[in-house]
Amino acid sequence: MSPQVPSPQAPHALPWDLLPTGTTRDERARAPVAVLPVGSYEQHGPHLPLATDTVVACVLAAAIADAHPVRPLPPVTISCSHEHAAWPGTVSISARTLAAVVGDVAGSLGASGVTTLVLVNGHGGNYVLGNVVQEASLGPLPMVLFPTEPDWADARAAAGLSTTNDEDMHAGELETSILLATHPHLVTPPLVDQPATDRRRLLRRGLAPYTESGVVGRPSLASAEKGRALLAALVASFAAHL
User: Fold this and answer.
1) 94: how many CB neighbours lie within 10 A of its CB?
2) Which single residue of 81, 154, 164, 193 could bond 218 by disulfide (Cβ 3.0 to 4.6 Å)?
3) Which value, to the nearest 10 degrees, does the dihedral of the CA atoms of residues 232, 235, 240, 242 take?
């Protein structure tokens, strides 16, 4: 009996197109630049899936690969989500482990002829990736971290978003728009806003003291049109990083 493949339209099914399907022959035709999506598995309020950051990182990496001859890689799906530990479902690994995973991937890629590794980061809590990229600038395999905060801010402006990076930090207008544009079946209404602008002790206390729902932002402002514009703006800004 053949295994049952879940329908891509099932309410909680992740889309199969998040994984690259290229062959060795395909990779030989691409530039020696690899793109590694780094997501997370953490709460995203009541309306978005735990894998939201992974979905965002994967769709952005795929859009970059469509526009540039880079080599897409499968995602890292669990990362540093300790600030979300108060909510059921969140899973984290240590910053040391994430850095080690990226380092091992880089070593493997270098042995196969890749000359640059791009980390497409979908989770703002992966602070360690900045240090990993900083150290990699000394060799042997240089890395790029994308998008940066200015990239996100520029994309918000280009897409006409009403919110900023700071006030729309988590499961808000930006992330909800990208999922509405690419995988709308993963968005579960209602979309309830939750402001939490003063989060000065977030790293020590976690996110729970600042938001009951887990949302920090305004998902009610999200739209598929904004999501498409966000992705287009980010792909356009990626060229400068190469």
Assistant:
1) 12
2) 193
3) -170
What is the amino acid identity at position 152?
W
3-state secondary structure of 110: helix
Residue 107: exposed, middle, or buried by beta-carbon count in 10 A (0-12, 13-18, 19+)? exposed
Q: What's the start-to-end Cα distance of the chain, in Å?
A: 48
Tokens of 139: 């060799």
For the stretch 183-226, pLDDT in tens is 999 999 999 999 998 999 999 999 999 999 999 999 999 999 99
Comparing CA positions, the residue from 80, 116, 85, 86 lying closest to residue 101 is 80
Question: For 166-195, what is each residue's pLDDT tens digit?
Answer: 999 999 999 999 999 999 999 999 999 999
147 cis-preceded (ω within 30 degrees of 0): yes
Residue 60 · residue 106 · CB < 8 Å: no
Per-residue pLDDT for 11 more than 60? no
CA nearest to 229, candidates 185, 181, 186, 170: 181
pLDDT of 9 > 80? The answer is: no
Q: How far apart are CA 49 and CA 188, in angstroms?
A: 9
Tens digit of pLDDT for each residue in 17-27?
A: 789 988 999 98
Q: Hey, what are 162's tokens?
A: 């009403």
Q: Could you give all domains of the chain from N- to C-terminal order, each with its CATH number?
A: 30-241 (3.40.50.10310)
